[in-house]
Amino acid sequence: MKAKKLLIRLVSMMLLFVLLCGIGTAEAGWQNDRGRWWYSFADGSYAKDKWIQDNDAWYYFDHEGYMVIGWKRIGGAWYYFEDSGRMATGWVRDGSNWYHFDSAGSVTTGWYQESGKWYFFAKSGKMQTGWVQDGKALYYMDATGAMCMGWQKIGGSWFYFRNGVMCKGGETIDGKNYVFDANGRLVEGSYPTIFSIDLVNDAMGFPCAYIQILNQTKVAIDRVDFTIACYDAYGRKMKGFGMYKQDKLWYDYIILPGDKSPANVFWYLYGFAGVRTMTVTITKYHTTDGRTVNIPKSQQITFRN
Question: pTM, whole model, 2 decimals?
Fold first, then answer.
């Protein structure tokens, strides 16, 4: 009887020893729960709302302890985790959209340069293609997302991008003068057009306008006629008394074909105190051989400073 009790006690102690050893040596690392992965530690706890690094890759486990896959906002920044759970860095395609993540895994927004090319990412992190506005500047990104430079034909019209910024108004490119309308399209015609409009105040505080004309005809021009409209800071059209050039009426400087008029010729804008915006439309021009040419309304382009 004593031997039997001793045997039972011995077996109980052995079972207790085995249980204690099992608790102290719980297997740490990756665990799978019906296809969902979690990560356990040697003390029996598991990763929860926590980053884990494994073999130079980073993983994140949610509040339930499961490995995150796909998009996840952590600490105010967006991250993307591949199907393996690995945190993404570099370029990632999600559906039809491209994203970029820095070395810390944060999604790139705004401008990003790589291999000498510039890319632009929206606040969502989506890489942009086509037209992009940043502040007051317009850019065009090609199908790969790279910023376009120089001459580009878009939708049947020519545009020029100087350092990536779409040009408007008069531009001198490779020694040749060009004019681009308010939408950036190259003005291709055979009429004189506005090269630039600058509004300033003279030493007495009177408003003045510097208006340069580009001669796109094949003949010399000695005068152009145009109409103007002035607007205040609220965009309201102003009713003034007119304009007068500082030394001669109208614009009677000879402008050779392909050339532009002097930049230092200005008009006083009488009655337009407070003007902020000015539009100018050339209606006709006069050649040095005495001809007057009316510009068809369909060919008249209104330029705004």
Answer: 0.69
